[in-house]
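user: Please review this fold.
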Amino acid sequence: MIHITFPDGSVREFPEGVTGFQIAESISPRLAADVLAVGVDGVTYDLSRPIEQDASIQLYKWDDAEGKHAYWHSSAHLMAEALQALYPGIKFGIGPAIENGFYYDVDPGEAVIKESDLPAIESKMIELAARKESIVRKEVSKEEALNFFGQKGDEYKVELISDLADGTISFYSQGDFTDLCRGPHLQNTGEIKAIKLLSVAGAYWRGDEKRKQLTRIYGITFPKKKMLDEYLTFLEEAKKRDHRKVGKELELFTFSPAVGAGLPLWLPKGTILRTRLEEFLKRIQKRFGYQQVITPHIGQKELWVTSGHYAKYGKDSFQPIHTPQEGEEFLLKPMNCPHHCEIYRSSPHSYKDLPLRYAEFGTVYRYEQSGELHGLTRVRGFTQDDAHIFCRPDQLKDEFLKVMDIIFIIFNALDFKNFEAQISLRDPNDKEKYIGSDENWEKAERAIVEACEEKGLKANVELGEAAFYGPKLDFMVKDAIGRRWQLGTIQVDYNLPERFDLEYTGADNQKHRPVMIHRAPFGSMERFVAVLIEHTGGKFPLWLTPEQAVILPISEKFNEYAHQIAQQLDLLDIRVSVDDRNEKIGRKIRDNELKRIPYLLIVGEKEMEAGMVSVRKQGEGDKGTQSVDDFANAINAEVEKMMKAM
């Protein structure tokens, strides 16, 4: 007999070799029907996998991330089984579960798999699922695995197996399909109900642009059709909010093949939006005692060797820039931190000088693979709202609290009310992965935990997720349609002050190392704007929107009056444009409402004679006639009220 400990601390005896399914069934048949996988001492098992020794367990259902993972991982195998039946000779790369659904990278040989082929693949998946084929795990030797896939001629699996250690390899089989896989999986294919294949894309094998491009097929499955229908509705809403689509409609940014992939060009309206975000954060930072700095876009290679970034980002960065001087090399900077360390080091500091808070909207560059690029969310050149705080150890917690205050102000101002936090700490059982003394780590971790407690912030604690140089606090926000985005990070660093030999003179007249805090509330301006577009659907708050109002003359003879009003409003600090196209007023109203402009000002004979404007508000319709001054005062008062609330 073995002892099984449940999450509530209770312990029960079961025969050695009992499965997760049998344990669930011993509690209730209903539970057994709902459970998808089982956690055994923190490792997720298939429900049919024997448990051979005393263990703590957790039963995972659909609402658990581990349950979804097993469900979607099995769905990836079901799709692969269908592809094998439909495309004889097809070869398989990897097929993981992802945050929403799954994908499989495949090499169909001479065949071409298109979007139009997905319904046929779906139908085959439904047919195979109906057979309720058992999904069986088998542990195999490395030699056996190599022989199996070598005989199949599947070089991708052979390459993956070559990187694995003997004794760690397992196969999963269902029907005529066998795959190299760690699992976990469902008990049989019949548990997979509602199926939808979503898209086809290209993906280089192992993310290497020099390797063959495979076909990546994305899909998602659910236990109930209603859940799939709800998800497809969500996808339609997400398409409407796609920042690439909305950004084009609102004329915010563009990309040019002549400039280069992943290098966004900010158009005038997008520049206004971004500039207002920067000005907003600069005002907050001034209130909290930050000093703005500006650093070059490049630095000598040795700077990045000293910081450790060359070892970490060298392969992913743009290659060194060679100057006419022999042996001299520069790099486009992947991070702003080393430059800020050099600013700190440029003059001596006393303990009385600290903390020093350097802030910069610094543009950095990383050579992302072309297949990884995605609108503004994944680019090769981006601007971080970076700041580095150099403080004494006894100031660490207070500085951390102040950075949290800044992040909360931003979230409130931009209506990110639904967010969660994660504290990432060192793995206490593997301290060799980290640098710095135990004492410093304990101080840093305690400061983060205590700061969260003082703010009443409930944060998930994850062991082993800290950066190698220190613990951190990350913020994940949910947007208006429930998607999670990581925005805002605060990291504690004892590493760079050591590497750059940073010092301050203490009250004891001895030299001491400062502690360094990295913080970026937006993260990057590009990604933050993308998230903001998708959160708001392009309907930005009045204080932020590039155009607060547009003037619509009813006909050409009122164009001059419209431009006179625009000049008046511009002097009253209202961001305004004129739509003087030779179009009917109904068309102008529709077009400008699609541009999400908050106020539409209509002018004709009556308005010109009275020196007035007819006001329409986005989403609310006609608001009556007002004088130009009254309208401007109302807008500025509305903005001022918003700003005070921040």
